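Standup notes
- DV: blocked on the single-chain target, sequence here:
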Amino acid sequence: MAEEQTSAPDAPEPARAADDAPERSDSSEVAPVGFTYFFGRAVLVPLTRLIYRPRIEGKANIPRKGKVIFASNHLSFIDSLVIPMFSPRPVYFLAKSSYFDGKGIRGWISRAFFTAIGATPVQRGAGQAALDALDQQRRILASGRAIALYPEGTRSLDGRLYKGRTGVAFLALEEGAQVVPVGLIATNEAMPVGAKLPKRHPRVTIRFGKPIDLSHLGPANSGKARRLATDEIMAAIHELSGQELANAYNEAPASNPVDRLKQVLPHERR
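- DV (later): unblocked, structure below
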């Protein structure tokens, strides 16, 4: 799972290969997007275009039907809003459970909003929490819907593009989903950490790339296939975003010698 963020609903990464995964649930459990989503498209999208004038490129690349994973770089809280807002089809994402657990009027508004736009709560952590998140993502894809995930795992605080973890590739290979790379530009400048509302300048750019079919690389249970697929996804994101490459994983500083050793030793970042 990604490191805890105070302002962004980061999507978690799958934690295990197919043999260890939980049984699939009935895809009918996936709730359809609600009124708020369609209200936003009819009213808020034109308003956002008028005020902030975002540049939207490549919408024609997005498949209108079928299993799709939007794989995006991650710079700001608003990343999880602009992708579903400007996609021509509903996009589901996982939001941290605290957005659904609030009390009083503010808690109700937050819960109603995130539920209505197709977000589903997920507990942060490893082990069973990671498997539950993976199961939710599978159910959404199995129902023929689209989800949005961040291969870097969490936000880039310095604006560079970090190496991708293999969770997105694993899901795409296992579910037979196409991957639409997304390059977000200047979202971190438009809404930096701590800002209450986005700024009008600089203008944000959202670029949707051509869908990628990864099936030719091999099965999901192949570590080599997952790594090759991840590298192909990140190369497409880099071409769209133009970010400087970090050539490292976006990991929190190790808090103890064991964690430092784990980061140094070669292993697959899922």
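- Follow-up: The CA atoms of residues 1 and 126 lie 6 Å apart.
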